[in-house]
Amino acid sequence: MISKEKLDELKIEIRQEVLNQIDLSQEYSDEEISEIIREKICCVAKEHAIDINHRLYLEKEIFNSMRKLDILQDLLEEPEITEIMINGYQDIFVEKKGELLRVDKHFISEEKLADVIQQIVAQNNRVVNESHPIVDTRLADGSRVNIVLPPVSVDKSVICIRRFSKTQIRMKDLVANGSLSEEMREFLEGLVRSGYNIFISGSTGSGKTTLINALSEYIPKSQRVITIEDSAELQLIGVQNLVRLEAREKNLEGKLEITIRDLVRSSLRMRPDRIIVGECRGAETIELLMANNTGHSGGMSTGHANSTRDMIARLEMMSLMGMDLPMTAIRKQIASGIDIFIHIQRMPDRSRKVVEIAEVMGVMNDEVQLETKYRYAGDDKWVLEHPLVHTERLEQYS
Question: How far apart are alpha carbons 201 and 199 in whole angstroms?
């Protein structure tokens, strides 16, 4: 039986023979490239006694290395993989069913990894090199990609790919998965339909984007929705009048940058019923709060935080990045611009739970006041601590 090491050697050898045969000045279809690869494999197979399974393996691997994303292609086609982490050409890890695993594959060289990186960024007209060593982009299937090159990553290129489910997860699925209760689902449905401004907080990978996508199925079909993101990830459900905006980084001359803050301002002139900002990270926070306070109800956004209280502190800090205002004024903007905070958390068993839903009660003693509505009590049980206080919009919806 032929060893994996020998197969890797043959893969490199056959690939080079294919490259030597084709005329790089001409265009070849995928079928033509596949046919040339098969011919080369047939010649080698006689000499090395390669069985049919290994022939098919070599054909796929060589084709992926020439026309797709090399060994990444198989990982991207495996639905259970949610994250791919590449630490140089030899070390590849994946997150599968919440568990980190090392992959028994690697690129043939650092040069091949560099080729794949350039292939990825070229798909979205991005640039990454020594002068611009960090880039955020996405793949054709919507997967989010972060790339860091040396010298920023000390001795090797690093790629992190966050994958999203091809099947849209709905609120009923989150209930079935134990992320929240049916009573909470009905509660949130009423909030979304009636236009409450909702902010979702949580750590990386806790499910903030998944929750905001699922909540979008309750947005009335008659409404116009504008999404604003650093890198387009949101996959809203059933929204017909949808405009998707994406920020743009500076070019090589340091010009032509379009920030999320610019897009929030522009969206106000696009007749939005709802504005959804994928994630608040900086100065755009004050623009979003001001938009929510000027008649644009039903907005949603997310942010990184350890709790709802921590999220308020971060919103205060990020608002200061955008405008030099007294803290009292910023807190009043938060209290009037956000109605509901939802905190979602990744548990030790790798499940994701909505651990708190809190209503903003206003500003008292110079602090934004929260009142917990639902709290996770453990063992897949939630406690209703207080009923909703500000029910004007909800009553109109009912």
Answer: 7
Return d(Cα 170, Cα 140) in angstroms, integer.
23
Fill in the DSSP letter of residue 216.
G
From residue 171, how far is each of 51, 204, 212, 298, 299 by CA, in Å?
A: 48, 20, 10, 18, 18
What confidence tens digit (pLDDT) does each residue in 275-316 have? 999 999 999 999 999 999 888 899 999 999 999 999 999 999
pLDDT tens digits for 362-385? 999 999 999 999 999 999 999 999
Task: Give the closest residue to 374 by CA, choosing from 363, 361, 387.
Answer: 387
Set out the domains of the chain in order of their start, with CATH numbers: 1-67 (no CATH), 69-166 (3.30.450.370), 171-397 (3.40.50.300)
Using CA atoms, how far apart are residues 340 and 215, in angstroms rounded to an integer?
13
Q: What is the DSSP string of 138-176?
A: E-TT--EEEEE-TTTSSSS-EEEEE---SSPPPHHHHHH
CB atoms within 10 A of CB 99: 8
**Burial tier of 221 (Cβ tally within 10 Å: 0-12, 13-18, 19+):** exposed
319 Cβ partners below 8 Å, 6+ apart? 285, 286, 289, 325, 330, 333, 334
Which pLDDT band, with edges at 50, 70 and 90, does 262 fall under? very high
**Res. 27 pLDDT band, cuts 50 70 90:** confident
Tens of pLDDT along 177-198?
999 999 999 999 999 999 999 9
Q: How confident is the model at residue 1 (pLDDT cuts 50, 70, 90)?
A: low
- Residue 125 has a CB neighbour count (10 Å cut-off) of 9
Please, what sign has the CA dihedral across residues 217, 362, 307, 279?
Answer: positive
Q: Is the pLDDT of residue 76 over 80?
A: yes
**How many helices (H) and strands (E) would you count in the chain?**
13, 15
CA torsion through residues 261, 220, 346, 181, sign? positive
Tell me the C-alpha distance between 190 and 184, whole Å. Answer: 10
Q: Quick check: bond before 326 cis, omega within 30?
A: no
Stretch among 142-146, 155-159, 251-255, 304-308 having the lowest mean pLDDT? 251-255
* DSSP 8-state class, residue 349: T
Of 159, 135, 117, 120, residue with least CA distance to 251: 135
